[in-house]
Amino acid sequence: MSRQSISFTEPNDEWLKSQVESKEYSSKSELVNDLIRQARKQQVEIDWIRVKLEKAEQSGFTDQSREQILAQSKTLLNG
Fold first, then answer.
1. What is the pLDDT of residue 78?
2. Phi, psi at residue 41, to the nearest 5°?
3. Whole-angstrom Cα distance, residue 30 to residue 24?
4. What is the pLDDT of residues 64-73, one digit of tens each?
5. Is the pTM of this model over 0.90?
6. DSSP state, 22?
7. With the CA atoms of 57, 58, 62 and 66 taken in that order, what torsion angle do they form, in degrees rounded to the nearest 10?
8. Longest C-alpha distance within the chain, in Å?
9. What is the pLDDT of residue 28?
10. Closest of 32, 33, 5 to residue 16, by C-alpha
């Protein structure tokens, strides 16, 4: 594992310290690594949603109402 030296603003440092003091994490490093893992996972989810939205936008738009779309979807599902 590589070592890094980073600086925190005072409020962020205090928050990190409080998390360690509350025994939620054993060290600031553990906490920062956990936050980075969460951010990376969130980015994967955001990228997935973005791809789905782009695909939907490229497929075109409709002037159907919600009720019409729902009825059409039910018809397609029920055969």
1. 85
2. -65, -45
3. 10
4. 899 998 998 8
5. no
6. T
7. -40
8. 62
9. 96
10. 32
Is residue 72 situated within a structural domain? yes
Exposure string of 38-55, with b = 16+ CB inside 10 Å and e = fewer, is eeeeeeeeeeeeeeeeee
Q: Which residue has the tokens 């060290």?
A: 27
Does the residue 5 lie in any domain? Answer: no
pLDDT tens profile 26-49: 999 999 999 999 999 999 999 999
Q: Which residues span the domain enclosing 70?
A: 10-78
Domain count, the chain: 1
Q: CA–CA separation, 18 vs 25, rounded Å?
A: 10
- Rounded-to-integer distance, Cα 69 and Cα 77, Å: 12
> Which one-letter amino acid corresponds to residue 73?
S
Per the domain annotation, does 2 fall within a domain? no
Q: Is residue 1 assigned to a domain?
A: no
Question: Could you tell me the two tokens for 54?
Answer: 């782009």
